[in-house]
Amino acid sequence: GESVGLHLPTLSVQEGDNSIINCAYSNSASDYFIWYKQESGKGPQFIIDIRSNMDKRQGQRVTVLLNKTVKHLSLQIAATQPGDSAVYFCAERNSGSARQLTFGSGTQLTVLP
Amino acid sequence: DAGVIQSPRHEVTEMGQEVTLRCKPISGHDYLFWYRQTMMRGLELLIYFNNNVPIDDSGMPEDRFSAKMPNASFSTLKIQPSEPRDSAVYFCASRRGLRGETQYFGPGTRLLVL
Question: Count of CB contacts below 8 A, A vs B?
């Protein structure tokens, strides 16, 4: 049948647990990656970024891991809170693409009380 | 800083009407991006500017769409004539320089074309 929309991967976690959101990117030439959080009715909000010369970067309650060998990016959220419920997008930048970002389709994170 | 400002926040119009969306980037940012977000296609880049000059408009769906940036603090995205399939959320984002990788998004304009 015809798809009626994006089928976002979903992740449900209990409040207080850690969350891991995964992203596979396609372009081995990508040299910069960002995670965005988008709450309902709002624009994407920057969370954390990482360059391709790093494999890990930590922020406040968030950690991004980059595995260039398998072209995989993950976002870890520690002690997940109800306010973390949102759609999370990864974005990549190809160093040869005039510096545009390419966005993934997103993952819906739901924090259960 | 107030962040990226977009107006209107919501727009309902009838098919065939002209729609103009407005954006004020963050002061000092020299890159400005227009995106469209739909359930079907996700977040799509339409066009982006550097120092008020359009650099890549390959994402603009068709000639009904046009964008301008007359100065560093203002940009418009115009749809004329509008069609129901243009219904989406349109985001503006801005960024500082080549080394300023992070794009900051505005709150978006929700457009509904009846």
Answer: 46
C-beta of residue A11 within 8 angstroms of C-beta of residue A86: no
Question: Is residue A113 a contact partner of residue A94, using CB atoms and an 8 Å limit?
Answer: no
| Residue B58 CB neighbours (<10 A) | 8
Q: Would you state the pLDDT for residue A2?
A: 40
The answer, for B70 touching chain A at a CB cutoff of 8 Å, is no
- B55 and A45 within 8 Å at the Cβ level: the answer is no
Q: Report the pLDDT value the prediction gives residue A72, as an integer from 0 to 100.
A: 94
How high is the pLDDT of residue A4? 45
Six-digit token string for A33? 């990656």
Query: Residue A100: which domain range?
Result: 4-112
pLDDT less than 70: residues of chain A? 1-7, 95-99
Q: Which single residue is written with the structure tokens 């994402």?
A: B59
The number of folded domains in chain A is 1
CATH number for the domain including A70? 2.60.40.10
3-state secondary structure of B85: helix
Q: Which residues contact A53 (CB under 8 A, 6 or more apart)?
A: none
